[in-house]
Amino acid sequence: MTAFWPLLLACIPALAICLDRVAGEPPMRWHPVAWMGHALLWLGVRIAPPAASASSGADWPAFWRGAAAWLAGAGLFAGAAWGLQAWLLTQPAWLATLALALCLKTLLAWAMLHDEVLAVEAALQGGLPAGRARLARLVSRDTAQLTSGEVRESAIESLAENLNDSVIAPLLWFVLLGLPGAALYRFANTADAMWGYRAARELGGVARQWEWAGKWAARADDALSWLPARLTAALLWLAAGRLALRRGRALAALPEQARQTPSPNSGWPMAAVALLLGVRLGKPGSYTLNPAGRAPEPADLLRACALGSRAILGAALLGSFALMALILA
């Protein structure tokens, strides 16, 4: 059995993707990302001052509270993942492989994202209000005034950004650092989603000032997402096949377009999808990607989902080969 360990362990990324498609999301009470959210809520109300009493200048005490809370939470979840992985690796090879793939699957969310994006288009067919309401389940922005084209833009942007955050990045960190790496990344990404704001935002029923309390979380997510975001853009381009060849000139515009977003990372997968599909994406008053592109059409959400699925297939295969190479090195 020992001789088959490298081959079995190398199957974990691909097996996790298959489990994600077949099994879907676990119940919230057993979902590690939900546990992270509960922990971040508990910590967040203790580190961020109420907006009404927050100082207008630099708040270094809030910054250090946020940094300490982030490090404590990251250590807790990454440490638990390390302990679980260490124990599983003492079990029979087939059991360890299946269990680690199942654990990794809980840190991925492609099937849910894919289905929710397609559900936005299905809802739009029933009317713009229904499409806006369905989109509100995916994005944090106000959807009440969006046109049908803007609803589609937002859905495609969410798909592209979360393709990195919810799939490619956890897979990459699993290959590099095992289950602790994937858990660390998902904690960092969830912390950024809950704490990483420059303005006041409600948490625990109170509007709180996050500019300094959430600064560490935002910078940590930027650092951990830097490489995966660019890898996601590359995988999307490779997954496009002949379409990428027809859009060859657009590839040169990718770095410039990716820099248009406020985030140093999210622009890469979003710009890649915009350029490959030939559509315009953007957030009014903030950025526009591929401004010469056309407005998204109903078929574009399906095309974006298909492109993402092919990119994930490539990521799973690449991850398996890379994992085997690291194990055998």
TrEMBL record:
Write down the InterPro entries for this protein, in alphabetical order.
Cobalamin_biosynth_CobD/CbiB
Q: Which UniProt keywords apply?
A: Cell membrane, Cobalamin biosynthesis, Membrane, Transmembrane, Transmembrane helix
Which residues span the membrane?
62-82, 94-113, 167-188, 311-328
Give the UniProt subcellular location, in the record's own words.
Answer: Cell membrane
Report the GO terms under cellular component: plasma membrane
Q: How does it sit in the membrane?
A: Multi-pass membrane protein
Pathway it belongs to? Answer: Cofactor biosynthesis; adenosylcobalamin biosynthesis
Which PANTHER family does this UniProt record tie to the protein?
Answer: COBALAMIN BIOSYNTHESIS PROTEIN CBIB
Describe the family membership recorded for this protein in Swiss-Prot or TrEMBL.
Belongs to the CobD/CbiB family.
Q: What does it do?
A: Converts cobyric acid to cobinamide by the addition of aminopropanol on the F carboxylic group.
Question: In its UniProt entry, what is this protein called?
Answer: Cobalamin biosynthesis protein CobD
Native source species: Ottowia cancrivicina
